[in-house]
Write a structure and sequence with these properties.
Elements: H1 3-9, H2 20-36, H3 48-57, E1 58-61, E2 66-70, E3 76-79, H4 82-92, H5 98-112, H6 124-149, E4 154-160, E5 167-171, E6 174-180, H7 192-201, H8 205-217, E7 225-230, H9 236-244, E8 249-251, H10 254-261, H11 270-273, E9 278-281, E10 297-300, E11 307-311, E12 314-319, E13 327-328, E14 331-332, H12 334-337, E15 340-345, H13 353-357, H14 359-384, H15 386-404, H16 417-431, E16 436-439, E17 442-446, H17 448-459, H18 462-469, H19 472-479, E18 487-491, E19 494-500
Parallel strand pairs: 4-6, 4-11, 7-12, 7-15, 8-9, 9-12
Antiparallel strand pairs: 1-2, 2-3, 5-6, 10-11, 13-14, 16-17, 17-19, 18-19
Helix pairs in contact: 2-3, 2-6, 5-6, 8-14, 8-15, 9-14, 14-15, 16-19
Length: about 500
């Protein structure tokens, strides 16, 4: 809260007391001013509310040797040297009125003169000395506090959809920056005929917009993965452009995401994610294990900036073709089936008559419609309050994945494990009999991990092998008569690790 908000929101009778830290700073400043100005008889007037806002609204980075604070536009700005104090005052106000103190000193000197003496004004040189002494007395205690108590080099970014004002929350070893939601710009043409035409091309547009906002309000975004599989020229770039124009999208490649999880310097900064609701992966061609970690937040280490944690919501993957490492002939991996939905698109946008008539106008109409729809949905969620909004968001995500989840389009990979196991055992009996040992009338497959790897390599594509390789323990359980998979058995008097074949 800046000083203007503080003074406007509270009356003198209801204004909350300042903190003990602010009180101590006020007393320190008062003493320093009196010590430097012996003529001053009364304590100077120091605004504790402004000091309170300064020490709660700014922090010091030891790595950068600068003061950080949120400006009135909710941008994190940084200043060093003399600029730090100047912009602290610009943001929060001046805690001491120098002119008032000069007048106090002048009055004290006049009172000390003989009654018969002519009253003399303080010279400009004296006024400059007083101002310098006051500034030194005020600046050092506040900056010292920020450097000692508010030193942080890691930042957490968040947009609170229910907050009325931005704020900094100083936590142990990290500062949390909480911003307010800003409604999307709805200036632009409105044309229902164009919207109806776009809905005919993309029937799920309203469902997808509802999904995006539900993911924004949901407490757990584990199920907020959406795959848009649409043919070339369907209009994926058109849709992404309309969303990006509203600052809702951050685009990253799979390689960039891998680098983030490996702690490499990120090509993206927290400012890119500040109010984004969608992390988009265009030209989605392969599934990496890191994608499963994209749930609610990621850590960034941008060059020459503070390390930061940012929130992520909808994870949107766009492709014109199927992804072999995700969807194999035997189905889709269960972990993705549990969390990812899929929307398919056919037809080409640039062949639609209304689009051909005026592409720019068509685009602006759809962009405006998206903003109006999202603003309306956000207002509905905010009106529910935080708890009910989270519950509604969870219900929407669950309903969406029940209708559009990957297992509504493809078989689950786990359903194919029994068939893969049976075929693997038959192949191994024919092609690798030397790996099978008989003991007590039972077949035992030794070196089972390598043997199954050979079978998978022989019968599946490279991308399919990559997916099935991670599921070898489950497949071997279906190969085993005792369901234990590759486990310890006594074979011909010796304990070995093997699969007891069915």
């Amino acid at each position: 809260m800046n000083v203007e908000d503080y003074l406007q929101e509270y009356t003198p009778e209801t204004r909350p007391p300042i903190s003990r830290d602010a009180e101590r700073i006020v007393k320190t400043i008062a003493k320093r001013i009196r010590d430097s100005l012996p003529d001053l008889q009364d304590d100077p007037d120091i605004d504790g509310a402004i000091i309170q806002n300064m020490i709660e609204g700014a922090f010091w980075s030891g790595v950068k040797s600068k003061i950080f604070l949120l400006n009135h536009d909710e941008c994190l700005v940084q200043f060093g040297g003399q600029d730090a104090w100047k912009f602290l005052c610009r943001r929060f106000g001046k805690p001491v009125d120098v002119e008032c103190i000069i007048e106090q000193v002048k009055a004290a000197r006049v009172a000390a003169q003989d009654q018969g003496d002519e009253q003399k004004d303080i010279s400009q040189r004296d006024q400059d000395k007083i101002a310098k002494a006051v500034h030194a007395s005020v600046i050092d205690p506040i900056l010292d506090y920020l450097k000692y108590e508010n030193q942080r080099d890691q930042v957490e970014w968040s947009v609170d959809m229910f907050a009325k004002r931005a704020k900094l929350e100083l936590k142990e070893d990290v500062v949390r920056i909480v911003l307010t939601h800003q409604p999307l710009d709805v200036t632009g043409p409105r044309d229902q005929a164009v919207i109806d035409d776009y809905r005919a091309h993309f029937p799920q547009i309203d469902q997808v917009l509802g999904y995006i906002i539900a993911a924004r309000f949901a407490l757990d975004r584990k199920k907020a993965y959406l795959w848009l599989l649409a043919q070339s020229d369907w209009g994926k770039g058109f849709l992404m452009g309309a969303l990006k124009d509203h600052g809702l999208v951050v685009e990253m490649s799979v390689r960039e995401i891998e680098g983030v999880f490996e702690g490499k310097p990120a090509g993206r900064s927290p400012a890119d994610f500040k109010r984004a609701m969608i992390l988009a992966v265009d030209e989605f061609k392969a599934v990496k294990s890191e994608l499963k970690q994209l749930q609610s937040e990621i850590y960034l280490a941008p060059k020459y900036q503070l390390t930061a944690r940012v929130e992520i919501f909808t994870k949107l993957f766009l492709s014109a073709e199927s992804v072999g490492s995700l969807v194999t002939e035997n189905g889709v991996e269960d972990q993705f089936a549990n969390r990812m939905s899929m929307i398919t698109g056919t037809g080409t946008l640039n062949q639609r008559t209304r689009y051909q008539a005026d592409q720019g106008y068509y685009y602006r109409v759809v962009r405006t419609y998206i903003a109006r729809s999202l603003n309306s949905l956000i207002a509905e969620y905010i009106a529910l309050g935080r708890t009910d909004a989270e519950k509604r968001a969870d219900d929407v995500l669950n309903a969406f994945i029940a209708e559009h989840g990957l297992d509504q389009h493809f078989q689950r990979l786990s359903d194919s494990y029994p068939d893969i196991a049976t075929q693997a055992v038959d192949w191994l009996r024919r092609m690798k009999p030397d790996l099978i040992t008989y003991s007590g009338g039972i077949e035992y497959l030794q070196h089972a991990n390598k043997a199954l790897e050979d079978y998978l390599t022989e019968h599946f594509t490279f991308s399919e092998v990559g997916t099935l390789r991670r599921r070898k323990p489950e497949i071997m359980q279906h190969m085993a008569a005792d369901g234990r998979g590759n486990a310890a058995h006594r074979v011909n008097g010796v304990v070995v690790k093997a699969v007891m074949l069915k």
